[in-house]
Structure formats: structure tokens, C-alpha cells
Design a protein that fits this description.
Elements: E1 2-7, E2 10-13, E3 18-26, E4 32-39, E5 48-53, E6 60-62, E7 70-75, E8 80-85, E9 94-102, H1 107-111, E10 117-118, E11 122-127
Parallel strand pairs: 2-11
Antiparallel strand pairs: 1-3, 3-8, 4-5, 4-9, 5-6, 7-8, 9-10, 9-11
Length: 128
């Protein structure tokens, strides 16, 4: 089992920045690719895939909605993945969750939602 704990969320004004962390513990001897998702709390809003980073850090993905503003990175020594969020907008408001996929999962499957473990999320609120 792997436990994921997100932190770094909070309230920020539009145009501001936040840096989210996803810390892994438990059975972390297996490397994991990590994805960030967000779930806005408005009726009818589906979970949105925001960014992902391959287990070895050599490949990343950013959704078009955040490209150029958000950057995913990882520090494997600290077993932590980060999501640097700049130029935040009110519609970035959501609960942000991270998820882990073992390194045996192909990158294409990772991008298609092939995650095994999920964190509880951290709230990000962007005021206008």
C-alpha cells in the first residue's frame, strides 16, 4: 500500500501562486508515476486531469487549461511530487488530488487514468 498526502492548498487572490506537494509513504520501494487532478465543487463538474510526471521524472504532461501556468516536478529523494501553480484564476478553484501509478504501468495508460492510489486532496480557492 502507498499513502499519498497532499498539502499546500489555501486561499489566494487571482494572479497569485501556490505550490502543492504530494508526499508518498508506505510501499514506496516501487517507483510511481504521479498525476494531479482537480475536482471543482460545482454541480456537473467532472474531475479534471491537470498534470502528470513519469516515475523517473523524464516525461511530464500538462493539460491545456494549465499549460504555461502550472509546472509538475518531483524530488524522488523526498518521495514528493510538486505542482507549482502560477497566475491562478478563479476557475482554478477546486480540490486538488494526487494519484500514483506503479512504474509498470505504461505512460499512455497513466495519461488515461491508470492510477492505483489516491490522496484525500487539498483545497485551493482563488478569489477574484
Amino acid at each position: 500500500q502507498v499513502q499519498l498526502v497532499e498539502s499546500g492548498g489555501g486561499l489566494v487572490q487571482a494572479g497569485g501562486s501556490l505550490k502543492l506537494s504530494c508526499a508518498a509513504s508506505g510501499r514506496t520501494s516501487t517507483p510511481y508515476s504521479i498525476g494531479w487532478f482537480r475536482q471543482a465543487q460545482a454541480p456537473g463538474k467532472e474531475r479534471e486531469f491537470v498534470a502528470a510526471i513519469k516515475w523517473n521524472g523524464d516525461t511530464t504532461y500538462h493539460a491545456n487549461s494549465v499549460k504555461g501556468r502550472f509546472t509538475i516536478s518531483r524530488d524522488n529523494a523526498k518521495k514528493t511530487v510538486y505542482l507549482q501553480m502560477n497566475s491562478l484564476k478563479p476557475n482554478d478553484t477546486a480540490v486538488y488530488l494526487c494519484a500514483a501509478a506503479p512504474n509498470t504501468v505504461p505512460w499512455g495508460v497513466v495519461l488515461d487514468g491508470g492510477y492505483t492510489y489516491w490522496g484525500q486532496g487539498t483545497q485551493v480557492t482563488v478569489s477574484s
